[in-house]
Amino acid sequence: MVNLWEDMETGPDAPDEIYAVVECLKGERNKYEYDKDIPGVVLDRVLHSNVHYPSDYGFMPRTYYDDEDPFDVLVLVEDQTFPGCVIEARPVALMKMDDDGEQDDKVIAVPTEDPRYDHIEDLEDIPKQLRDEIDEFFSTYKNLEEGKEVETLGWEDKQAAKDAIEHAMDLYEEHFA
């Protein structure tokens, strides 16, 4: 059985084009996690706050970030896909975040195979309202979980996202190669 974290490349041309393995779906409250030991997507929890994912959310294969997890990616989509779906995507921005004292940044990406997102190349191309909604979601989605504290720390451009992806690929190599 294929392990989507270990057996796939980070992307066809990482960090310019990456693979996003979808865990959580746009419009839902279910928090799915990929369990590499099964391997498969399992329900981790239902979000305690009355919020839903602003777009499909998951991780990039063969990455490892400062929070000691695969590197997170939010792929802007019109319609949700499904847990375990692999989306070829282009990084366009980085949202900085602190989750319980750990750096837990999020790459924002767009699907390479959806012409509705061809015009989004960098941070300034993402509508401000959508950036605000994404920020609001990650600022509040753990509010009702006891002992959890999250802080969003602002936005950075496409180059920062690509640099962070390279960092996550290097950390994966250091820890798992």
Description of the structure:
By secondary structure, the chain is an alpha+beta fold. The chain has a single domain, classed as Inorganic pyrophosphatase (Inorganic Pyrophosphatase). It is 18% helix and 32% strand. The protein has two helices and nine strands, in the order ββββββββαβα. Strands 1-4-5-8-6 form a five-stranded mixed β-barrel. Strands 2-3 form a two-stranded antiparallel ribbon. Strand 6 and strand 7 form a beta hairpin. The chain is globular. The chain starts with 17 loop residues before the first strand and ends with a helix. The mean pLDDT is 97.
Output the keywords:
2 helices; 18% helix; two-stranded antiparallel ribbon; 5-stranded mixed β-barrel; single chain; alpha+beta; globular
Shape: globular
- What is the spatial order of strands in the main beta sheet? 1-4-5-8-6
How many separate structural domains? 1
Weakly predicted, low-confidence segments: none
Query: H/E order of the elements?
Result: EEEEEEEEHEH
The number of helical runs is 2
Beta-strand content estimate: 25-35%
Strand count, sense and barrel status of the largest sheet are: 5 strands, mixed, barrel
Rg over CA atoms? 15 Å
Task: Look at the helices and sheets and give the structural class.
Answer: alpha+beta
Topology, number of strands: 9
Helix content: 10-25%
What is the average of the pLDDT values? Answer: 97
InterPro entries: Pyrophosphatase (IPR008162), Pyrophosphatase_sf (IPR036649)
Enzyme class: hydrolase
Keywords: Cytoplasm, Hydrolase, Magnesium, Metal-binding
Subcellular location: Cytoplasm
